[in-house]
Design goal:
Blueprint lengths: L1 H10 L1 E7 L2 E13 L4 E10 L8 E6 L4 E9 L14 E7 L1
Antiparallel strand pairs: 1-2, 1-5, 2-3, 2-6, 3-4
Amino acid sequence: MNGQIDTAIKEHRVIRFTYEGGVRIVEPYAHGVSHENNEVVRCWQKEGFSSSGNSQGWKLFEVVKMTNLAVMQEIFQPIRSGYRKGDSAMRTIICEI
């Protein structure tokens, strides 16, 4: 799955996956390891399920909780406001825009 995530980041491709009970459609910006040693992905969620009720916005997802991941054909422009290189939530960054 990590290879798919990194490919999606490098190619600016939207990904879809199931997470905590619902389908999420996101633009992945960074993939890394959190300070708690969890593999994570920083994304802009553009549509889909949200347990918080906020279906759009910046979110951090744990890779271990992602299922049914698919890299879509849709390409996004990496210009979302609020993204910062060197995500402070990540101890180690594996791949980022």
